[in-house]
Design a protein that fits this description.
284 residues; alpha+beta; 18% helix; 23% strand; globular
Length: 284
């Protein structure tokens, strides 16, 4: 699935590329089934809530240790005033992260299929390393908004190299919270970095005051996608997704890939144990 000249031109122009039919629907179903099994087996002795609005507040120990684990995170609206789940556990999870691609055989196989490797080679990632994986549920009615952001804020390299490989496992529409992106926004500066504090916890390091596009505004375009569509997202591209108030979930899977020829700083929030080094597509 090497990209053709028109696709590469669109990638260079827009900072994102939508590739319909990139992933076999049967593979999508297989990944959804495996994610369901992980959630079913998950014992929420530790309740960690994922929110992009108060990221430093939600950077608890469970989150900080998830770089080389398979961890489940709840939606902000999953709990009622009494602290109990409003819905069953399966409809309350925001995402699973962040090392399934190296720790789970089903996710490993899905993440290292030819569609990913060929696209990475086509856009010139010299030494691709799979850094982070996220299974995003966007459950009905409570699927949280993901605020407008740049992936390099969270997965910074020097020089910047991260690319998101986002796959629609179910149809992503305006109604259930599809992605929105700013065409050409990858040519704007990096606004901030999300870093570990020496004394513990995290903070945002402010780099540039350029405002992000208004969510749902004219600078952003919706990326509606049928199941099996792959979307490439440049690390500097501002992108956003709305809350899902519909009755339909919007499952998606993202692998973030960096170039191993770049430097990955020790202050990045996501760190891996020496026992779990980053792997490329061919590594066993």
């Amino acid at each position: 699935m090497h990209l053709d000249a028109d696709q590469l031109d669109a990638w260079e122009r827009d900072g994102f590329l939508t590739i319909p039919g990139a992933i076999d629907p049967a593979r999508c179903q297989e990944l959804m089934q495996r994610a369901d099994e992980i959630v079913t087996a998950f014992d929420p002795a530790t309740v960690s809530i994922f929110s992009t609005h108060e990221q430093t507040r939600t950077s608890d120990e469970y989150f900080m240790a998830s770089g080389d684990n398979i961890s489940c995170f709840f939606e902000e609206e999953a709990f009622g005033p009494d602290g109990r789940l409003v819905h069953d556990k399966a409809r309350s999870i925001n995402k699973i992260g962040h090392a399934m691609h190296d720790l789970d055989p089903v996710f490993d196989s899905f993440s290292r299929q030819a569609a990913f490797a060929d696209a990475a080679a086509s856009i010139g990632i010299a030494r691709p390393l799979l850094l982070q994986s996220m299974y995003i549920f966007k459950p009905p009615h409570i699927g949280g908004e993901v605020s407008c952001h740049q992936d390099s804020t969270f997965l910074y390299t020097d020089p910047m190299s991260v690319v998101g490989f986002w796959v629609a496992l179910q149809d992503a529409t305006l109604e259930n919270g599809c992605l929105w992106a700013q065409p050409g926004g990858h040519r704007t500066p990096l606004r901030k970095r999300f870093v570990r504090e020496p004394g513990g916890g995290t903070s945002f390091e402010e780099l540039d005051a350029t405002p992000f596009p208004e969510p749902g505004g004219s600078e952003l375009v919706p990326l509606e996608a049928e199941a099996g569509t792959m979307v490439l997202l440049h690390g500097l591209l501002p992108h956003w997704s709305d809350v899902n108030r519909s009755a339909r979930s919007r499952h998606a899977y993202t692998v973030h890939i960096i170039d191993g020829a770049t430097s990955y700083p020790a202050e990045n929030w996501l760190q891996r144990s020496p026992d779990l080094p980053l792997r490329g597509f061919d590594a066993a």
